[in-house]
Design the sequence.
């Protein structure tokens, strides 16, 4: 993970070497939890261990110069987790409404199941890549509405999806649903996710089994996972759920107040916030496991695109440009509907109140 | 995997201990490839090693009594592979047509993209279980057409899906599509798959992102993976593809002549054959990677339900009973539309010509 092969924690431009700290008996846990190329062993150790390490590190941070560390510029970051299953939800009502209007103009914008269950699909775990990994423009099939036959070539509608991703630490058992009240006990932390999407491929392939190649070429994840416990101060009230949800999804409503932004080639093209998401991670876990499915350490559960109610708060170019009808003008005078080769996208997130907690960023540049 | 924790190969009612053979330098490969709880290390070693081991074992089998082995009855079988990503295709034209007629009677039975690309979705890798694992009847949401609101409870439409699963041995690189001509070089072997499905949950949840909880509770896999090389004698001509496929999917057409059957509580309720599948694994791999997605060792690529053109050759109860309208009568006089608690299902496969190669079976019994 770091140049030394050890797992580091970040502090300004220095990265603390947790394996070195643990080997000196200063973290009250086994060094083997960090002498790995992913966080999975530490995540599997459970909430007590996470809390001990976090508390100890907070105390040690008062004398940060004395801790073993690397310069951030000397470190090659790797994917922070070994992804077990990758699940992508669809939990922004505004995004689902916008997509329905664009993709299925003849139907009601929200599918009739949408308000009753947190819709989701499985994405490709094997193509989740760390922030900074170049994104190859995918090829595939698309079909223009007026054409009889599909065409084949590089996507012309390459898009961003601004998301948060929740990482599962402690597993659950096959056949035993996780109750909504205790679901967050399984959550190790949260990261930023860019679920790159090829809209032309998606429109042609997604009926009846959902998106596949339009998403599977790459999903970018931030290199740092923020412990879930560290963002609990950002709890706010969840938007009301109407119609009322079934009892297995009912809970004290909460959402996360996290400011989010999309930067494209140095231009901030969207600002939004996660607090308006209709479904929260407790409900998503309760739903995902109510059929007896188990959670595994390393499961990545993403929110789906997070969009606000303004045009300027869309979480994708498809929404920000009304499916290409109203291009965005960048500071260099060029216009964008969808992404061009060479475009660099960064997603950032942070809690709005002092002391702000930053989720860092996830970046990616489009290769031809 | 075996009682000893070593990987065995089966021979009648004895299971050969490959780790013990390799440690005596009799397999021309490292014992560490088999001293594991899955086949993944051996699968990652590549076609040359697979071939060497297979050839050597075939020679040694002439004196099978002299080989280190276990009695099959002493062995607890484990899932033979550590599943990376699980992809389920939809490659039986008859099945896709039947499902379209039942689920979307107002639309043409085959979606307009179906003949142009091998449709697929990602399933849940974490709930692929070995043959013999009890299958808990899943709970979830369903909505009767005449009702305004969904209900919650155990599925009343628990179904079988008869499939083959191809296991990826050697990986491919991110950003580098696998050409259709060389795709089978990545395939280690083939297994039997039962992709259990809750049809009532599926009908309610699957729009617009595809099936999720209706499938994710469990997928059963046979305990033995047949090396792909061992079934090459069963190649037959693939059914004609019309309209012609795009060039990246074009190849010398082939299919696998494998007889398949479904047994329910001792009654054979369906007989079909894999030779009628419209898409083959070469085309599926070429399609899956044409967008730059990579393959990983342990990827499981299932065919989707395999149905023939007769009512008695359906690969699911939904087809065999016309969505519950025409129950099956079993030898004990009871009727079935969908599965009851306590029902035991076995899927079997073998090549029809002498010497027949058996894929063994995958079984599962429904728990309440």
Sequence:
């Amino acid at each position: 993970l770091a140049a030394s092969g050890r797992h580091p924690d970040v502090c300004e431009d220095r990265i603390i070497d947790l394996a070195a700290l643990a080997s000196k008996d200063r973290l009250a846990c086994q060094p083997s939890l960090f002498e790995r190329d992913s966080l999975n062993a530490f995540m599997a150790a459970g909430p007590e261990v996470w809390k001990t390490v976090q508390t100890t590190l907070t105390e040690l941070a008062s004398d940060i110069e004395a801790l073993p560390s690397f310069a951030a510029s000397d470190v090659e970051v790797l994917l922070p987790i070994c992804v077990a299953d990758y699940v992508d939800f669809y939990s922004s009502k505004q995004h689902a409404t916008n997509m329905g209007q664009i993709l299925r103009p003849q139907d009601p914008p929200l599918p009739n199941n949408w308000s009753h269950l947190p819709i989701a699909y499985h994405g490709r775990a094997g193509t989740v890549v760390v922030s900074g990994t170049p994104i190859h423009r995918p090829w595939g099939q698309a079909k223009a509405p007026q054409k009889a036959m599909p065409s084949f070539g590089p996507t012309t509608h390459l898009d961003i999806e601004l998301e948060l991703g929740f990482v599962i630490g402690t597993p659950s058992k096959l056949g035993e649903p996780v109750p909504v009240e205790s679901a967050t006990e399984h959550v190790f932390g949260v990261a930023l996710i860019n679920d790159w999407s090829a809209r032309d491929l998606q429109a042609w392939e997604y009926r009846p089994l959902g998106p596949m190649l339009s998403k599977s070429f790459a999903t970018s994840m931030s290199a740092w996972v923020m412990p879930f416990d560290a963002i609990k101060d950002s709890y706010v009230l969840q938007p009301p759920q109407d119609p009322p949800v079934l009892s297995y999804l009912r809970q004290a409503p909460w959402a996360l107040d996290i400011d989010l932004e999309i930067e494209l080639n140095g231009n901030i093209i969207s600002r939004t916030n996660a607090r308006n998401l209709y479904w929260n991670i407790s409900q998503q876990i309760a739903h995902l496991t109510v059929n007896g499915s188990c959670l595994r350490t390393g499961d990545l559960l993403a929110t789906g695109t997070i969009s606000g109610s303004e045009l300027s708060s869309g979480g994708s170019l498809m929404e920000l440009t009304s499916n290409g009808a109203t291009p965005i003008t960048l500071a260099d005078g060029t216009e964008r509907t969808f992404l061009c080769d060479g475009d660099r996208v960064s997603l950032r997130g942070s809690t709005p109140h002092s002391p702000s907690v930053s989720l860092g960023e996830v970046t990616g540049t489009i290769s031809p």
